[in-house]
Amino acid sequence: MNARDDFRPLDDTDRRIIQATQAGLPLTPRPYHAVAEQLGVAAAEVMQRMQRMLDLGVIRRIGAVPNHYALGYRANGMTVWDVADARIDELGERIGQLPFVTHCYQRPRHLPDWPYNLFAMVHGRTREEVEAKATLIAEALGTASRARDILYSTRILKKTGLRIGA
Amino acid sequence: MDGAVMDGPGLDALERALVNTLQDGFPICERPYAEVAARVGSDEATVIARVESLLARGLLSRFGPMYHAAQMGGALSLAAMEIPPADFERVTEIVNRQPEVAHNYARSHRLNMWFVLATETPAAQQDTIARIERESGYPVYNMPKIREYFVELKLHV
């Protein structure tokens, strides 16, 4: 693969690899070979293309997603913060580095109903644990945080994986 | 229930090691499970069987490549609605019926319904939002990410 290859957009073969693996990787000794066989592509090519997608960020990572709830982390708190736009990137980077924050985003406000622009997802075994972690976030933000809230999930209404169409 | 939570979900030492190490990444090579086995001091067949078991028991929700929707040309957003309790089930049905809605959670807030929209294009995202607003009669607060901050993705079990 040469450098120019890095700028090549995703092609049909890449999309077929995505479709074949987005539900999961085969649980067989040679999983990439299994995908290759299914698609009629050489195994080396599947691995090379997946490595390229990983390098490009099309694949965030390959690995396992733990089910926090099943693993005993029953309290899932979406902590939301109103911080100054001028400082949000610096603060977002800082909050994302806290070991208990699993997602951290800047999102748009919807004034006056929704003043929060920084979202940090926190999982804990109990709400008390989530609140203790939110306090650590508040300390990390200091006076930059003007308002905050924690939204707990009370019910999963729908959960399917993300899919791209055929 | 509290006891069960404190005692953990019944993982043995190998399973703990797998849950921890597999969050770090899975190699791209001919025998990746064998490589992971070497890392955790086990063998290929056992690692495959345990990953299968962790998935079957729901302790892992996924295993494989995580694709970045936006990088594939798709659009991903988080959206919220304020639904009166008496109308909650009807609106849940409308929202969940949309194939573009990947996750939907009830949350403890005035904005009490939060869902993730995954579409092929930003235009399709707008279409889905318009359809939900029309069918439900309530506004949708669309909150697509402006920036994502790097996180240490690791749950230690």
Walkthrough of the structure:
The complex is a heterodimer of chains A (166) and B (157). Chain A has 166 residues and is an alpha+beta fold. Chain A folds into two domains: 3-56, Arc Repressor Mutant, subunit A; 75-152, 2-Layer Sandwich (Alpha-Beta Plaits), CATH 3.30.70.920. In chain A, 34% of the residues lie in helices and 27% in strands. Chain B is an alpha+beta fold. Chain B has two domains: 2-56; 70-142, 2-Layer Sandwich (Alpha-Beta Plaits), CATH 3.30.70. Helices cover 40% and strands 21% of the residues of chain B. Chain B has six helices and six strands; from the N terminus they run H-H-H-H-E-E-H-E-E-H-E-E. The longest helix of chain B is centred in the last third of the chain and has 15 residues, at 122-136. The interface between A and B is large, with 79 and 82 residues.
Structural class category of chain A: alpha+beta
Shape descriptor of chain A? elongated
Oligomer kind: heterodimer
Taking pLDDT < 50 over at least 5 consecutive residues as the criterion, the unreliable ranges of chain A are none
Topology summary:
The complex is a heterodimer of chains A (166) and B (157).
Chain A: H1 12-21, H2 31-39, H3 43-56, E1 59-66, E2 75-83, H4 88-96, E3 101-106, E4 118-124, H5 127-141, E5 145-159
Antiparallel strand pairs in A: 2-4, 2-5, 3-4
Chain B: H1 2-7, H2 13-22, H3 32-40, H4 44-56, E1 60-67, E2 75-81, H5 88-97, E3 101-107, E4 113-119, H6 122-136, E5 141-142, E6 147-148
Antiparallel strand pairs in B: 2-4, 2-5, 3-4
Helix pairs in contact in B: 3-4
Write a short abstract of this structure.
The complex is a heterodimer of chains A (166) and B (157). Chain A is an alpha+beta fold and 166 residues long. Chain A is built from 5 helices and 5 strands, in the order αααββαββαβ.
